């Protein structure tokens, strides 16, 4: 344990009221990217601009040096020195989703028992405030810093990452850095990411007579997105045997019949696409029902069924498509189907694939292209990120490990996550907190939350880690 632990917590308690007031001022701002309000010094919209202005206000109030880089990013600076310690966080948030699924207003800071609630409280406004107050406390305690410390904040982490691209065109890479946008102890591995969709080729279309089949699949509809497992789908058939069809749609939550039209609704739960193994993909339930009537559906629907069933169904690791691998340090691949759109002429399937060491992005894309060509479909890549891996023996991880143990009394270990933090834009960087194993922060979901004790411990850990790295 460090001799400074009690001092840190004393300062945190002294600052608590102001800290929560500052966090609340950020939480009230809807900082979802909004290009409709894009303007000078607000490339991501006025909401995100307001969060930068709020952090600038804190910096002026507390006499920190700051710089704003055209509304893409900013930094707040403490200390001097040629070498720099970076702390990278973001001020943009994801959409709040369905308001009626929230216990408290999403754009506020609500306190209930030992938790704080609101969109962005854990990802990433709460951690940004934690890092900011760690700077204040370290400065208050007047440690003799040998390295400059920069809190670097971006405005497009949840979307395009243009913010960091712009920032590092102007600024050098820090000597060492971490992002408070992950988990404790230390996230030294972040899997590579490839997101996109498979689209049917027009040459799939076939002309058939109504007498050729008992059921024609008219459409499948779901929300077009890449961040969650396919949760809800609506399907409709034209059927000559409506009651027989209804009896086979046993996985559907609700089936409606009107004349010769059969409409079925399939409903699942919110599971992040980076963790498809943690829940059920509702599309697979529909495919199970479709398998019961495969011989009685139109040929185009059969083609769709065979592709999903043969290459994806009940496989969340990419084995069927030839993309499974496992690494002893970073774990296994995951492959998630995130949405499906289908009509009588074309279909589109969204996917999110994540991979560890042991397979390259080039190999991933090559395998997907071969699969697409073999099945007469088109591959469209929407987003991709290279994997991150930092050696546990590095000076950065050794310093963070010491900081973590000095506050918690526990030995730090390294772990891999499927998510993406700003650590990926760093030459030497990892994700570091704020969540602990027992936390369930609901990031990107309704009722996002942050345990108050987690927030305080994160600040203390950041204080000690900055002290170690910067001195």
User: How many DSSP H or I helices?
Assistant: 10
Strand content: 25-35%
For the termini, the CA-CA separation is 18 Å
Shape: elongated
Helicity, as a percent range = 25-40%
What quaternary form is this?
Answer: single chain
Strand order of the largest sheet: 1-2-6-3-7-22
Low-confidence runs: none
CATH architecture of the largest domain: 3-Layer(aba) Sandwich
Structural class, judged by helices and strands?
A: alpha+beta
The total strand number stands at 24
CATH level-3 fold name of the largest domain: Aminopeptidase
CATH class of the largest domain equals: Alpha Beta
- How many discrete structural domains? 2
**Largest sheet: number of strands, sense, barrel closure:** 6 strands, mixed
Rg from Cα: 25 Å
How much is the average pLDDT? 94
What is the CATH superfamily label of the largest domain?
Zn peptidases
Please characterize this protein's 3D structure.
The chain is of the alpha+beta class and 471 residues long. The protein folds into two domains: 5-191 and 388-470, Zn peptidases (Aminopeptidase); 193-385, Alpha-Beta Plaits, CATH 3.30.70. It is 30% helix and 26% strand. It contains ten helices and 24 strands. The strands form seven sheets. The chain has a six-stranded mixed sheet. A four-stranded antiparallel sheet has the order 17-18-10-19, with helices on one face. The longest helix has 23 residues, at 5-27. The radius of gyration is 25 Å and the shape is elongated. It starts with a helix and ends with a helix.
């Amino acid at each position: 344990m460090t001799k400074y632990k009690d001092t840190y917590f004393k300062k945190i308690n002294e600052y608590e009221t102001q800290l929560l007031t500052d966090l609340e001022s950020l939480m009230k701002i809807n900082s979802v990217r909004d290009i409709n309000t894009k303007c000078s010094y607000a490339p991501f919209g006025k909401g995100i601009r307001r969060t930068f202005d709020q952090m600038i206000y804190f910096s002026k109030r507390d006499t920190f040096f700051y710089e704003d880089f055209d509304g893409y990013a900013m930094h707040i600076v403490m200390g001097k020195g040629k070498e720099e310690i970076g702390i990278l966080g973001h001020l943009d948030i994801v959409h709040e989703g369905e308001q009626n699924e929230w216990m408290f207003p999403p754009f506020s800071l609500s306190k209930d028992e030992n938790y704080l609630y609101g969109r962005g409280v854990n990802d990433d406004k709460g951690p940004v405030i934690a890092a900011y107050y760690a700077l204040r406390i370290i400065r208050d305690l007047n440690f003799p810093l040998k390295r400059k410390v920069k809190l670097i904040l971006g405005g497009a982490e949840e979307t395009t990452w243009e913010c960091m691209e712009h920032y590092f065109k102007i600024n050098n890479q820090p000597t060492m850095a971490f992002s408070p946008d992950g988990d404790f102890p230390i996230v030294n591995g972040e899997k590579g990411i490839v997101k996109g969709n498979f689209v049917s080729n027009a040459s799939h279309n076939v002309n058939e007579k109504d007498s050729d089949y008992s059921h024609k699949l008219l459409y499948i509809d779901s929300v077009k997105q890449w961040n969650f497992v396919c949760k809800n789908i609506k399907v409709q058939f034209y059927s000559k045997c409506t009651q027989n069809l209804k009896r086979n749609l046993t996985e559907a939550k609700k089936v409606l019949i009107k004349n010769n039209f059969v409409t079925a609704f399939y409903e699942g739960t919110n599971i992040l696409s980076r963790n498809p193994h943690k829940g059920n993909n509702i599309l697979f339930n529909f495919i199970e029902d479709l398998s019961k009537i495969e011989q009685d559906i139109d040929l185009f629907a059969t083609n769709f069924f065979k592709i999903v069933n043969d290459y994806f169904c009940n496989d969340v690791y990419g084995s069927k498509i030839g993309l499974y691998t496992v690494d002893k340090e970073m774990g296994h691949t995951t492959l998630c189907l995130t949405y499906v759109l289908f009509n009588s002429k074309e279909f589109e399937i969204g996917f999110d694939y994540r991979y560890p060491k042991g397979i390259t992005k080039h190999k991933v894309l090559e395998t997907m292209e071969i699969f697409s060509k073999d099945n007469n479909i088109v591959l469209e890549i929407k987003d991709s990120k290279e994997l991150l891996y930092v050696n546990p023996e590095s000076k950065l991880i050794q310093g963070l490990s010491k900081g973590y143990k000095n506050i918690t009394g526990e030995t730090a270990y390294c772990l891999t996550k499927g998510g993406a933090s700003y650590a990926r834009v760093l030459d030497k960087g990892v994700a570091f907190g704020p969540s602990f194993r027992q936390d369930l922060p609901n990031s990107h979901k309704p009722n996002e939350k942050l345990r108050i004790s987690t927030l305080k411990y994160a600040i203390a850990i950041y204080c000690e880690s900055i002290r170690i790295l910067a001195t």
